[in-house]
Structure formats: structure tokens, C-alpha cells
């Protein structure tokens, strides 16, 4: 397998795909909830709430408490969460196995890479810089970039626009239904990585390919690209 089968760029999701950020999100969410007098959640419960962006995280937490939250209160709580989360975003967070190898493999082959996440861009950049990935990336699109968050296609389309590439030239790698739905809506090939943050069985996400670890992405690209031309 050579790099000639590869797309012109590869975009990666962040949480649950490149980094295991759930422990810091868990700590920050519980601190946010405590400030409102609400009880804490387990790490496992919070892990299932991640992936839709911060306002969704707050909404899901309140829903799990059996409480309705109006949009204004939710947005205030989301701001409070971000203020707590940002300064501690890399305390317990680790790279997922193979994330460094996968990103470097593309970069060394001259394939531009990027991150498209529902997480706000400031915290995203801080995390990527902490792990030495920011300098490798050609584009970083966060959930606050403007377009609707994943599962809408806008963030992926914005990344393509910034790269100067069409969706057919780009592959997206993610861990959840939000990623697959966003890619399908953007008509972009998508590879799912097992072990991320999703309540759905990885086989049922509907991705074009499924890998056990992110560093297997380069080796599945040839078959996935062949598939994409028939879509
Ligand atoms: O839920 C979030 O804040 C971000 O999640 P993502 O990196 O998987 O898009
Ligand atoms: Mg994710």
C-alpha cells in the first residue's frame, strides 16, 4: 500500500478519536453541576454524554437528572463549564493509542491533516498543542466556528473550504454517530475508530470502514477510497 491511494487530506475528530478527554470533561462537568447544587455523575455516564458539544453536554446532564433546562440557563451553564474546563483541559487527558503515529504518517507523506470537533476551538488548540499535534495540522475547526455542530455537515465543509479541497478529496475519521452523520450529510468518506465515545455499537455507526485503532487508518484507505467512488 502506498500513499498514492490516499486522499488529498484527512480530517480527524478530537474527543474519543485523537484524545481520551473524558476524565477532564467529567471533572469539569461535575464541578459545574456542584456549583448549581447538583449531584455528580460517574466517568462512564459522562463519557456517553460527550460528542455533541458543550451545550449538548449540559442538556444531557440535566436530562439524566430528570430536569428540563431552558436554553438561556443551559448557555450560562455551558459558559461556566468552559471557564472551568479550559484551564484544566490537559490534566487527565491522554492521546489515544496510535494517534501520534496516524497523524505523523500522513504528515510525513505530505497529506494535509486537520481536526474537526464540536469542542470550542480555544480548548481544542490548547489540547493539540499540549500533545505536539497543533504544529502538524493544516486546519482546526471547533464547534464555535460558526456553522451548526456535527451531525450537521457545516464544520466539515468549512474545513474543506479552508483546505481548498472538495469533499470527495477528503476522508474523515471519527468515533461517534455525530461524525458519521456529518460526513454522510457532507458526502464525505468516513472511517470510524472503535473504543470512542458512543452509545451505539461501532459496527452500527454506518461508517465506510471501521478500525480497531486509529493507526490502522492509513492501511484501510485503499479499500475505503474504492468504495467511495461508488457512493
Ligand atoms: O462534545 C464535544 O465537546 C466534542 O466532541 P468531538 O471532539 O467528539 O466532536
Ligand atoms: Mg468524538
From TrEMBL:
<dbReference type="InterPro" id="IPR023214">
    <property type="entry name" value="HAD_sf"/>
</dbReference>
<keyword id="KW-0460">Magnesium</keyword>
<dbReference type="Pfam" id="PF00702">
    <property type="entry name" value="Hydrolase"/>
</dbReference>
<dbReference type="InterPro" id="IPR023198">
    <property type="entry name" value="PGP-like_dom2"/>
</dbReference>
<feature type="binding site">
    <location>
        <position position="175"/>
    </location>
    <ligand>
        <name>Mg(2+)</name>
    </ligand>
</feature>
<dbReference type="GO" id="GO:0046872">
    <property type="term" value="F:metal ion binding"/>
</dbReference>
<keyword id="KW-0119">Carbohydrate metabolism</keyword>
<feature type="active site" description="Nucleophile">
    <location>
        <position position="13"/>
    </location>
</feature>
<dbReference type="InterPro" id="IPR006439">
    <property type="entry name" value="HAD-SF_hydro_IA"/>
</dbReference>
<dbReference type="InterPro" id="IPR036412">
    <property type="entry name" value="HAD-like_sf"/>
</dbReference>
<feature type="binding site">
    <location>
        <position position="13"/>
    </location>
    <ligand>
        <name>Mg(2+)</name>
    </ligand>
</feature>
<dbReference type="InterPro" id="IPR050155">
    <property type="entry name" value="HAD-like_hydrolase_sf"/>
</dbReference>
<protein>
    <recommendedName>
        <fullName>Phosphoglycolate phosphatase</fullName>
        <ecNumber>3.1.3.18</ecNumber>
    </recommendedName>
</protein>
<comment type="pathway">
    <text>Organic acid metabolism; glycolate biosynthesis; glycolate from 2-phosphoglycolate: step 1/1.</text>
</comment>
<dbReference type="GO" id="GO:0005975">
    <property type="term" value="P:carbohydrate metabolic process"/>
</dbReference>
<feature type="binding site">
    <location>
        <position position="15"/>
    </location>
    <ligand>
        <name>Mg(2+)</name>
    </ligand>
</feature>
<keyword id="KW-0378">Hydrolase</keyword>
<dbReference type="GO" id="GO:0046295">
    <property type="term" value="P:glycolate biosynthetic process"/>
</dbReference>
<comment type="function">
    <text>Specifically catalyzes the dephosphorylation of 2-phosphoglycolate. Is involved in the dissimilation of the intracellular 2-phosphoglycolate formed during the DNA repair of 3'-phosphoglycolate ends, a major class of DNA lesions induced by oxidative stress.</text>
</comment>
<dbReference type="GO" id="GO:0006281">
    <property type="term" value="P:DNA repair"/>
</dbReference>
<dbReference type="InterPro" id="IPR037512">
    <property type="entry name" value="PGPase_prok"/>
</dbReference>
<dbReference type="GO" id="GO:0008967">
    <property type="term" value="F:phosphoglycolate phosphatase activity"/>
</dbReference>
<comment type="similarity">
    <text>Belongs to the HAD-like hydrolase superfamily. CbbY/CbbZ/Gph/YieH family.</text>
</comment>
<dbReference type="GO" id="GO:0005829">
    <property type="term" value="C:cytosol"/>
</dbReference>
<keyword id="KW-0479">Metal-binding</keyword>
Amino acid at each position: 500500500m502506498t500513499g498514492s491511494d490516499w486522499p488529498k487530506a484527512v480530517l480527524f475528530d478530537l474527543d474519543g478519536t485523537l484524545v481520551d478527554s473524558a476524565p477532564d470533561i467529567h471533572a469539569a462537568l461535575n464541578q459545574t453541576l456542584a456549583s448549581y447544587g447538583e449531584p455528580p455523575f460517574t466517568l462512564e455516564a459522562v463519557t456517553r454524554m460527550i460528542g455533541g458539544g458543550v451545550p449538548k453536554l449540559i442538556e444531557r446532564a440535566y436530562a439524566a437528572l430528570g430536569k428540563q433546562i431552558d436554553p438561556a440557563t443551559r448557555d450560562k451553564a455551558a459558559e461556566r463549564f468552559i471557564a472551568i474546563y479550559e484551564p484544566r483541559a490537559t490534566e487527565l487527558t491522554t492521546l489515544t493509542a496510535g494517534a501520534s503515529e496516524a497523524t505523523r504518517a500522513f504528515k510525513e507523506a505530505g497529506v494535509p491533516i486537520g481536526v474537526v470537533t464540536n469542542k470550542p476551538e480555544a480548548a481544542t488548540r490548547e489540547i493539540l498543542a499540549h500533545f505536539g499535534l497543533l504544529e502538524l495540522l493544516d486546519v482546526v475547526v471547533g464547534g464555535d466556528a460558526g456553522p451548526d455542530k456535527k451531525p450537521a455537515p457545516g464544520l466539515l465543509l468549512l474545513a474543506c473550504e479552508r483546505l481548498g479541497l472538495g469533499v470527495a478529496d477528503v476522508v474523515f475519521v471519527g468515533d461517534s454517530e455525530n461524525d458519521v452523520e456529518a460526513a454522510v450529510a457532507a458526502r464525505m468518506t468516513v472511517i470510524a475508530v472503535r473504543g470512542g465515545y458512543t452509545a451505539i455499537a461501532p459496527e452500527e455507526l454506518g461508517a465506510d470502514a471501521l478500525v480497531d485503532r486509529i493507526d490502522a487508518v492509513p492501511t484501510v484507505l485503499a479499500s475505503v477510497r474504492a468504495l467511495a467512488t461508488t457512493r
